[in-house]
Amino acid sequence: MLLSAGCEASHTRIAVSGSPGLAFTGTCTGTDATGKPFSQDLAGVVPKEFSIEGHHLDFNAQKNRDEGNLTVTVYKGNSPKASAVNGIQGVQHGVRGKVRWWGLSLKSY
After folding, report:
1. pTM of this prediction?
2. Domains in the chain: how many in total?
3. How far is Cα 43 from Cα 37, in angstroms, rounded to an integer?
């Protein structure tokens, strides 16, 4: 099964949590229900959630400082599907992810 332009957009929720008061920045790109590409900023202070309608999502969220932990959880519907924690101070700075109709992947970097 392939998703194509004109298909109903898929609802994804991206929740960013971690050390209280930790600021982060990031982006999410994908394709909307009409097949048009879009880009959405993912930025704020944890905890924060983003509701995204689209297909073929690529996203990242990174800490604005070395200290602290950043956790990104992806929900499809009301169910958490994957979570990645970034917490090795000075080594890891964020989380990258991909959401496709066949599955998703998250990775700390």
Report:
1. 0.81
2. 1
3. 20
